[in-house]
């Protein structure tokens, strides 16, 4: 059974950095695309970034472009989200998700993903 487990969240001051990790188990990680989403209290789930199976193609939300980087290590079954220049509006629960169909172009909608992790809280103080 495939599972996604996130880690790396926490409390950071505005302008700081965090690196989130999402470890996958139970299936061939290198064959599918991965994404990161976030959800703030009272708001809908929001796409953050996605990456294809090889890491050669990436897609970002405009709100994080230039500040966040998604990358993966298939040998470790892990996808990462490096977050720099964090802002208070980045505060949310961040979840990773797996697209087993490896859609092209990279998916940006929650409905296009097949499996979700539980999430990790990121809080950015001003």
Describe this structure in words.
The chain is mainly β and 126 residues long. Helices cover 0% and strands 48% of the residues. The protein contains no helices and 11 strands. The chain has strands at residues 3-7, 10-13, 18-25, 33-39, 46-51, 58-60, 68-73, 78-83, 92-99, 115-116, 120-125. The strands form 2 sheets. Strands 2, 4, 5, 6, 9, 10 and 11 form a 7-stranded mixed β-sheet that branches. Strand 4 and strand 5 form a beta hairpin. The model has no long low-confidence stretch (mean pLDDT 94).
The string of secondary-structure elements, in order, is: EEEEEEEEEEE
Poorly predicted runs of 5 or more residues: none
Main beta-sheet strand count, sense and barrel state = 7 strands, mixed
Which percent band covers the strand fraction?
A: over 45%
The helix fraction, in percent, is under 10%
Number of helices: 0
Structural class: mainly beta
Backbone shape: globular
Give the rounded overall mean pLDDT. Answer: 94
Rg value: 13 Å
Could you provide a short overview of the structure?
The chain is mainly beta. Helices cover 0% and strands 48% of the residues.
Give the helices and strands, then pairings.
Blueprint: E1 3-7, E2 10-13, E3 18-25, E4 33-39, E5 46-51, E6 58-60, E7 68-73, E8 78-83, E9 92-99, E10 115-116, E11 120-125
Parallel strand pairs: 2-11
Antiparallel strand pairs: 1-3, 3-8, 4-5, 4-9, 5-6, 7-8, 9-10, 9-11
What attributes characterize this protein structure?
mainly beta, 126 residues, seven-stranded mixed beta sheet, four-stranded antiparallel beta sheet
